[in-house]
Amino acid sequence: MEELKVEKAIQDIYPDDIAWCYGCGRLNDDGHHLRTGWHGDKTITIYTPESKYMGIPGFIYGGLIASLIDCHGTGSAALALHRKNGHEIGDGAEPPRFVTANLNVDFLKPTPQHVPLKAIGTVEEIHPKKWKVETEVYAQDTLCARGTVVLVVMPSTFLNKND
Ligand SMILES: CCCCCCCCCC(=O)SCCNC(=O)CCNC(=O)[C@H](O)C(C)(C)COP(=O)(O)OP(=O)(O)OC[C@H]1O[C@@H](n2cnc3c(N)ncnc32)[C@H](O)[C@@H]1OP(=O)(O)O
């Protein structure tokens, strides 16, 4: 499989007030720092989990795979709506914000530890407030999990709740 790198990620430009997500917030020192960018007309997140995220020794804990699919979905929807609004990462515009309404995961094969996981997403707009992202998670060339996330534009009630 070719070596891939996410050069420009939507999480790099989340404003500070929403950059704290345990999965993908760049400001959360304890988090996974998942980063999602365009990969042609698909989206991509690449992540190698640390050894402690094991389920059965040698294999990744399923909850972590769900987290990867969740944050990949949030980032993918933000990328897609940002582009629909006429913007790209780096043009100075603030990206849209999404929260997860629904997350479904099929664990297809055991996911091995110590290899980069590659989440590839296909984004579909259902209506301007609601998007769906289908994600496939590969370990090297093996399709290990497939997930669907429904994302809704974040209601303003989510802000200012961290005090
Ligand atoms: C913030 C961005 C930066 C940080 C990103 C990191 C985030 C990582 C991902 C997360 O962990 S987010 C945290 C986990 N998610 C939540 O806490 C969300 C909690 N749920 C809610 O706040 C509300 O239920 C939600 C905003 C998702 C929907 O509220 P409403 O149902 O009042 O919204 P609305 O009525 O406007 O519905 C919008 C659409 O979503 C649909 N919808 C709502 N819940 C759904 C659901 N569970 N499944 C499928 N569709 C759903 C709803 O039917 C509707 O579609 P239609 O207009 O086509 O009918």
UniProtKB/TrEMBL annotation:
Keyword set includes Cell membrane: yes
InterPro entries: HotDog_dom_sf, THEM4/THEM5_acyl-CoA_thioest, Thioestr_dom
Record key words, sorted: Apoptosis, Cell membrane, Cell projection, Cytoplasm, Fatty acid metabolism, Hydrolase, Lipid metabolism, Membrane, Transit peptide
GO molecular function, one term: hydrolase activity
Chief place of localization: membrane
Catalytic class of the enzyme: hydrolase
Protein EC: 3.1.2.2
Thioesterase domain boundaries: 58-142
Domain of life: Bacteria
Subcellular location: Cell projection, Ruffle membrane; Cytoplasm; Membrane
One Pfam family named in its UniProt record: 4HBT
CDD domains xrefs: PaaI_thioesterase
Topological category with respect to the lipid bilayer: Peripheral membrane protein
Family affiliation: Belongs to the THEM4/THEM5 thioesterase family.
Name the record gives this protein: Acyl-coenzyme A thioesterase THEM4
Source species of the chain: Lysinibacillus capsici
Lineage of producing organism: Bacteria, Bacillati, Bacillota, Bacilli, Bacillales
